[in-house]
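Dear colleagues,

As part of the handover before I leave the project, I'm documenting each prediction I ran so the next person doesn't have to rerun anything. This entry is a single chain, and its sequence is reproduced below.
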Amino acid sequence: MIALVLIAVVVASGLGYWLFVPKATNELVTYTTQQASLSTTSEQALATSTMSTAATSVSETTLWLNVTATKPVSYYISLLKSAGAQPYVELGGELQALPDATNATAVAEIAYLALNASNPEVKEAFGLMIKGGTPDQSDFSYSVPTYNTELEVLYWLASSSQFKRDDTLALAVAMSNGFWLTIGEEQVRGVVRNDTTSLLAFLRETDALQESYGYFRLEELPLEAKVALGWTGEESMRHGYGPPIGLIYWTKQRLPLDIYEADTVSISTLVEMRSEALTHNWIILGGGVESFVSAIEDYLFFPVGPNFNYRTDYDKIVNDQGVLAVHDVDWQWTQHEKGLRFQGDCGTEMTIADAWLKSWGIATLSEWAYTLFTQHNLQKLSHSFIIYYEPISRTWKAYRNQISDGGMPNWIAGMGGNTTQPFDMFICRPPVIQQHYLREKYFESRTIGGVIYNGYWHFQGNMYYQLEQTPWTQLEDMLSKGIPTATMKEWLFYMEPVV
């Protein structure tokens, strides 16, 4: 009798589990990720002893929901619309509005990525994409898409790549690059499709290499750091270098292909940068982010001279097409490969460091500080440098020599030793929130020590996070200790623009 009772309990328990446990959207299957290698020959030779581990990581069997094209696009859109919660209901509508979303497998991948997420940053990323991915026609003199261009990039990625569960890296690449479809000529669209697909593959391969070398993996970075990795436009939104490079000058006319290429770093250059870093032994087993940052910054800028020709006449630095090349990383790299020095100002060094660190999966953002120095008849002082994500402390930092008295004596000395001088600090924001992204700067008056000074920069729109009138000592302390990831996420994604 006891045995019969036990059997009955077991059967009842199993039946209850079958009846009441929520069912997955589809059956679980396994597949093997397919990924083409972007490694150069020299890099493969240098990494022979560790690539076997990396290869295993890249091609490991991954548990995922069965994604097939056996059902029509409308089925997967209906799954999203019937989810009963945002942003998924709206996501279904925006997928339906895309002009080319006919690949059922790609739409299925996006639907499953959304509905089966276990990482809350997936929902956050979709929410940001819904909020910021559709441009505002009032920002432009020409017609811009009426649909979500960031979602279109995600659809392209899903058409050519297999997504992982909780694939925030794919989401970040899409969020960072939809803006090029908004402002670019027709030729730019095709190039962006190829570039974003190659970038996602490159970052996945870099993640595998990082694991094999014992570095913190980029796949484990927070969302704002992955978005920074996905943005290859450095500081191209910036006004300082003037037309035709600054994106601000392309609100009345569509961006042509040659300017897009000058404003972004190519995947081939990133591959070569990563390879050279291996050649220099800047990437070592068990190394860390800060040691790699030091290696790059010291090679480029400390001391200025051996590898960098500092020039303030940056308007004379042009590429073979006659386009300003002061922060054209691809052109600067070709000069470097010829044995010539990089050339330009601190902004040039910032863009090269930005790309070189991203070549090893280190998230970076462009930053510059600016003041009108009141003791020198309103002499303008400004300095540009990268800030980078340090994963151990989960903070964003600046390299010590870029912000300290000993590291940049000419920069600090320009303040006459007055390091309490108030500065404005600008952090370039990737164009995730597209509405009102490109807005003109304007000048305002400020009263400092009872004296009115004219000519301080202020910016509208979403291009920058601007921290105003902060003593340099306070900025130095903040950038040395690090800006917490939650604070940076707020600054990049959630600060409302001045319009």
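The two ends are 79 Å apart (CA to CA). The longest strand covers residues 379-390.

All the best with the project,
I.
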